[in-house]
Amino acid sequence: MAMSNVGIPSRQLYIDGEWREPVKKNRIPIINPSTEEIIGDIPAATSEDVDIAVEAARKALARDDWGSTTGAQRAKYLRAIAAKVLERKSELATLESLDSGKTSFESAADMDDVAACFEYYADLAEALDSKRKTPVNLHLDSFKTYVLREPLGVVGLITPWNYPLLMATWKVAPALAAGCAAILKPSELASITCLELGEICREVGLPPGALNILTGWGPVAAAPLSSHPHVDKISFTGSVPTGTKIMTAAAQLVKPVTLELGGKSPIVVFDDIDNLDIAVEWALFGCFSNAGQVCSATSRLIIQESIASEFLDRLLLWTKNIKISDPLEEDCKLGPIVSSGQYEKVLKFISNAKNEGATILYGGERPEHLKKGYYVQPTIITDVNTSMEIWKEEVFGPVLCVKTFKTEEEAIELANDTKYGLASAIMSKDVERCERFTKAFHSGIIWINCSQPTFHQLPWGGKKRSGFGRDLGEWGLEKYLNIKQVTEYTSDDAWAFYKSPSN
Ligand SMILES: NC(=O)c1ccc[n+]([C@@H]2O[C@H](COP(=O)([O-])OP(=O)(O)OC[C@H]3O[C@@H](n4cnc5c(N)ncnc54)[C@H](O)[C@@H]3O)[C@@H](O)[C@H]2O)c1
Ligand SMILES: NCCCC=O
Ligand code: NA
After folding, report:
1. Where do the catalytic residues lie (predicted)?
2. Helix 89-100 / helix 104-131 crossing angle, nearest 10 deg
3. How far, in Å, is the centroid of ligand 1 from the Cα of 374?
4. Predicted ipTM?
């Protein structure tokens, strides 16, 4: 087993630019999913801490050192944060792997993406200065009109455990770029690197209250944000049930939310592909990277019947070749599931699939060589029908279910046969066919001859039960802005709608 010499920092809540013990002084153990051992603990915030953090955020917006900053001034902080993340990349990546079970390779890639995302939103923050006040020309000379883009206010950012620091960055970076004051509540299953983001913000001198970080149980440390009268928006990434609760609570105050939820995305493979192995690897990466704990995982493989047998043979060979080990081991390509709870959920999905009559073509159990840790073999399930749970529900683990098709019509029907609408992928060398599927897929993300590549310049999000709103790109910034129109009457003449009493 790979050993790490990285210590787990002991942190408090990060509020108003300093570390503060939670009012109730409770803490939650940190469990390393690859060893099942307790390796530290995080503070457990309660509604009292939420109130303190919201007050700190409001004070920041009222102070010149944050509330009156230009985009260029905010960009300096974002670039300084990016630089610190890269400075601490190796340590942060190790902490991420110890906390979430993510392979060290993927954790390191995440840290690069975190830094790049902060840099990207620094550029957009600067660009905002020239777009803050946009004149709108009318056909009337007696009016002067323009649009202002202003920070939305205090925003609650609630994030999941599968990409702990990256999912948080997708929200923190644009929120700060927009000039909002944010309260981040990461998942209690993996909060270490988000707390380190607090230390980084403290070191770069981010004005107090601009970013506050509360860790703790969702219903206790995050739910109060949804119903808090002084939180102006909630940006959430997580499961559908939680998203529904947040939306319900926010609706009582007509509070805007954006929801980045789950998925059960298809990858459709046609028999006209040039290289079978290239398509096989994308199918593997699309469902087994990050141990399948990916919202956009293409966990439904839909193969044209004419190549199905050969494709599955190759898929099996590639799957058997995946290195499953301690995530800190070099070349590890599949680590553990994040927690015992999620681990049991994944195994239950597999057992239910068996009971419903599906075939476990490969995997489905704990790897022989790993007696400890929440490890599940990469699993391929065939003989699936569309009424089965394994076809319909998000597993959020390394479980790929397979169906075949004959015609394009059948393929698109199977692909869209889901209550979700996050991502869809097609493997084909027929350009027109890919065009047709790009239009026919009911999802917010389309991959052509690939699966999962993610770029911070492009909008990320879905439709149907995958939620609404977009992270990333310019869309990710717009959602933290209040768009204000200003209309000024510039004529010296009376409006003359009413008859003047003096006439
Ligand atoms: N669409 C995306 O971009 C995306 C990305 C990652 C994960 N996800 C989804 O997230 C799910 C897995 O992540 P998860 O298990 O952390 O999700 P989750 O919904 O259990 O938790 C997400 C966050 O919500 C908090 N939370 C829990 N109950 C809450 C409540 N009542 N009010 C407010 N906040 C609450 C949690 O503490 C956590 O911080 C999967 O469904 C996955 O598809 C989606
Ligand atoms: N590649 C980023 C996926 C985010 C959702 O889990
Ligand atoms: Na953990």
Report:
1. 260
2. 120
3. 19
4. 0.96
